[in-house]
Design a protein that fits this description.
Chain lengths: 469, 233
């Protein structure tokens, strides 16, 4: 007898969540067990067959009936969640070395479980409530036993809670099928998307979250969780294609993205420390992703690629910041300190979309799409460029401060054993080489993003087919 | 012994004098108290009364046997927050920690008002709450701002009061329990509106579960915010 495949995505993470909750006194052990479970979930999800007739495994069939409602797992969602579990495995492997908050591991599994239910649930009203539940559990991931991180977690919860009623009412209106309500629906969805995806003017929770939470939390929250939320946004737009056709909706969302991007650049320029610079550069990336969503058929595919690149960038920058903080008290800049700085700078540059970083592809895509003669937003390319230059200037200022602050240059007169502890050096070098590998083989990201976009939004598939890398 | 115990419908008949505008005014008054008062005990008591008054308004939109779920949900939410508040000493410093040790929890500045000591922020919060109450009152009277699917003006007033005061409360404080009560008020106001559109039992249960999950998240963050390790940070 086989079980419906959605059960794997919803119930699968709950078992490791319970197991690692029992181990929360030993964060490294919990992270190790969690990483193994996430790898197993990734393997199971990647090899899952949605065809009930031909499946030989334990899980088969794409629909689960729960309380009279159907949860349907599509091929796109399956592929997306395989990526999410792969990402979670990587995060948890790193958190063996850099222990996060005591609830990080169990809560992260619980969040992905609820998020998968939200993406699969129909009608959307239930999906909206599940998003709220996922945000409530996310507070356990965000808090890092510090007062400011509890405040940041609360702020995030407030913004998702404010978005939930908008989605609920919009969903009710969509289900009622009255054409006269379309004008209200797109307005509700516009504000809801801006709240959920941190578009202007609802971006104020982003920087406190990056600054106050533990080092790998931004990668989880803005790389994995927001990727899941973006899947839901895409599904909503896919099932209501008329929204794509409302020019005012696209225009206002585009403005929201552009202003977020511009503000990110300005805030990076005036930021005083590495955490605030990273938060500001993340705003640049978030704004860019919102802009991409509105830019024709290829935009959403590039936005998905931006999510994948963002996860890597935040991972690298988070590890870098932790290494810098750990080595802050040392008298000299050791090799590990420099590698940490390199990881931070590389992640930050990737968020900006500099050449030779994974973030370059999506950012170049954004500039090209804006520069098309038919877009009518050619002038916005200049604004994007100014924001990127401002962000880069903020980063340079921050790096100069970091380099000048603690002590003198690397002491090569000492033996390597003194200046570098081997595991940290190896992990940082592997991380940097891995990031560089994505630069030289960008198709690994772009192909996944294109495949996902054509699976998640079949409406775009005919337009994407000739462009597939 | 319990044969004469009043049923739900008996209770509703006894409380008929509160239905309609009195319940809406009670909701508005409790919302103002939650915004103005800093004492957690008074806040939670006001929240409980607010939920009970709101239930009288839900009766206008839902079957009374379903509307009573809202009262029970509200009571459970208040219970969760009450237990949390007690565990963290009502937001005050534990007796064995001195104000100098607790970097993160400074005593609020107070001013003397006759025989009473009042927080310095009280006049500001009172002013904002009264302005918001005035806005809610004015907007609630305007036909152009009548909410769709809601015919009774007192329901419109209650929805605006809960949503407006909830957002005001969330924006005035970063303290998880206080801001959390604002979030719960906001959700209660929205539910009052939403049940005029949608009356399904499944959605009622889902919204009740969402409230409980929100209350648990607020309780969790309150606990984290007030653990001694965090106070020393």
């Amino acid at each position: 007898m086989s079980l419906p495949a959605p059960l794997l995505l919803m119930g699968g993470p709950l078992l490791p969540a319970l197991a690692t909750a029992a181990l929360r006194r030993w964060p490294r052990l919990a992270a190790g067990v969690g990483a193994a479970c996430a790898l197993l979930l990734w393997r199971l999800t990647a090899s899952l067959s949605l065809d009930a007739a031909s499946a030989a495994g334990l899980f088969a069939g794409d629909t689960l009936l729960l309380l009279g409602r159907s949860l349907t797992l599509s091929e796109g969602v399956r592929l997306a969640f395989a990526l999410l579990y792969g990402g979670l495995a990587l995060l948890l492997l790193l958190s063996i070395w850099l222990p996060q908050g005591s609830d990080f591991t169990p809560a992260s599994f619980a969040v992905l479980s609820i998020l998968s239910a939200a993406v699969m649930a129909r009608p959307f009203s239930f999906a909206a409530l599940l998003l709220l539940a996922a945000a409530a559990v996310s507070t356990a991931v965000i808090q890092a036993n510090r007062p400011d991180s509890a405040d940041a977690a609360l702020r995030y919860l407030v913004f998702v809670a404010l978005a939930t009623p908008l989605f609920l009412v919009a969903s009710w209106m969509l289900d009622s099928g009255q054409l006269s309500l379309q004008g209200t629906v797109w307005r509700l969805l516009l504000v809801g998307f801006a709240l959920l995806l941190a578009g202007f003017p609802f971006y104020i929770w982003v920087r406190p979250l990056v600054v106050a939470s533990s080092s790998l939390t931004p990668a989880f929250q803005f790389g994995l969780v927001q990727f899941g939320q973006f899947l839901l946004v895409l599904a909503l737009l896919q099932e209501n294609p008329w929204v794509w056709g409302v020019s005012a909706f696209l225009e206002l969302l585009r403005w929201s993205g552009l202003l977020t991007l511009a503000l990110g650049g300005v805030l990076a320029l005036v930021s005083r420390d590495a955490g605030h610079v990273l938060g500001s550069l993340l705003l640049v990336d978030l704004g860019g992703t919102l802009l991409l969503l509105t830019l024709g058929a290829t935009g959403p595919a590039a936005a998905l690629a931006a999510f994948l690149a963002r996860f890597g960038a935040l991972l690298s920058a988070g590890v870098g910041i932790t290494v810098l903080q750990r080595r802050r008290a040392q008298a000299d800049h050791t090799l590990v300190w420099w590698l940490g700085l390199a990881a931070f700078v590389y992640g930050a540059l990737s968020l900006l979309g500099f050449p030779l970083t994974p973030g370059f592809g999506p950012r170049w895509g954004l500039v090209m799409l804006l520069a098309r003669p038919d877009s009518g937003w050619l002038w916005a390319v200049g604004m994007v460029m100014v924001a990127l230059v401002a962000g880069a200037a903020g980063l340079v200022k921050c790096v100069r401060t970091l380099v000048e602050m603690p002590a003198g240059p690397l002491q090569f007169s000492r033996s390597w054993r003194d200046v570098a502890d081997r595991p940290t050096t190896i992990i940082l070098i592997v991380l940097l080489l891995g990031a560089l590998a994505f630069v030289f083989f960008p198709q690994t990201i772009m192909r996944q993003a294109w495949e996902l976009a054509s699976l998640l939004a079949p409406i775009l598939a005919p337009l994407l087919a000739p462009l597939q890398p | 012994m319990f044969a004469d115990f009043p049923t739900l419908f008996d209770w509703l008949a006894r409380l008929q004098f509160l239905q309609g505008f009195p319940a809406a005014y009670l909701v508005l008054l409790m919302a103002v108290i939650i915004v103005v008062v800093r004492d957690w005990r008074l806040t939670l008591l006001a929240l409980l009364l607010l939920y009970l008054a709101a239930t009288l308004l839900f009766v206008e939109l839902l079957d009374p046997r379903l509307a009573v779920v809202k009262a029970f949900t509200g009571m459970f939410v208040c219970l969760i927050l009450y237990v949390t508040a007690r565990q963290v000493n009502w937001g005050k410093l534990p007796v064995d920690i001195s104000p100098i040790e607790a970097v993160q929890l400074r005593a609020e500045r107070q001013i003397r008002f006759g025989p009473y000591l009042l927080p310095t922020t009280l006049p500001f919060r009172l002013f904002l709450a009264l302005v918001m109450a005035l806005v809610v009152w004015t907007v609630g009277q305007q036909p152009t701002f009548q909410l769709p699917a809601i015919t009774q003006p007192y329901l419109t007033l209650a929805v605006y009061a809960l949503v407006g005061m909830g957002v005001l409360q969330v924006s005035l404080t970063a303290e998880p329990l206080k801001a959390g009560t604002g979030l719960l008020m906001f959700m209660a106001g929205f539910e009052l509106f939403y049940h005029a559109l949608e009356q399904s039992v499944l959605m009622l249960a889902a919204l009740a579960a969402s409230n409980l999950v929100l209350a648990l998240a607020i309780a969790y963050l309150t606990q984290i915010r007030h653990t001694p390790g965090v106070l020393f940070d």
